[in-house]
């Protein structure tokens, strides 16, 4: 079972074709998962023992425990 730390991000696509990429932990950062969202779709992502970063391409609204932001 994965150990998780409870960090979630909510990602809402503001345009079609938004790409979300999960990046691994460790000495070599690698892509391990990707998703495509279309306008209006929402994804809830969680940081785990395997996921240390999330890269987002495209216009989104992002909600985290640190606040709300949007990409340009």
UniProtKB/TrEMBL annotation:
<dbReference type="InterPro" id="IPR016031">
    <property type="entry name" value="Trp_RNA-bd_attenuator-like_dom"/>
</dbReference>
<feature type="domain" description="Tryptophan RNA-binding attenuator protein">
    <location>
        <begin position="5"/>
        <end position="72"/>
    </location>
</feature>
<comment type="subunit">
    <text>Oligomer of 11 identical subunits arranged in doughnut-like structure.</text>
</comment>
<dbReference type="InterPro" id="IPR000824">
    <property type="entry name" value="MtrB"/>
</dbReference>
<dbReference type="GO" id="GO:0006355">
    <property type="term" value="P:regulation of DNA-templated transcription"/>
</dbReference>
<dbReference type="InterPro" id="IPR023558">
    <property type="entry name" value="Trp_RNA-bd_attenuator_dom"/>
</dbReference>
<keyword id="KW-0804">Transcription</keyword>
<dbReference type="GO" id="GO:0003723">
    <property type="term" value="F:RNA binding"/>
</dbReference>
<keyword id="KW-0805">Transcription regulation</keyword>
<keyword id="KW-0694">RNA-binding</keyword>
<dbReference type="Pfam" id="PF02081">
    <property type="entry name" value="TrpBP"/>
</dbReference>
<dbReference type="GO" id="GO:0006353">
    <property type="term" value="P:DNA-templated transcription termination"/>
</dbReference>
<protein>
    <recommendedName>
        <fullName>Transcription attenuation protein MtrB</fullName>
    </recommendedName>
</protein>
<comment type="similarity">
    <text>Belongs to the MtrB family.</text>
</comment>
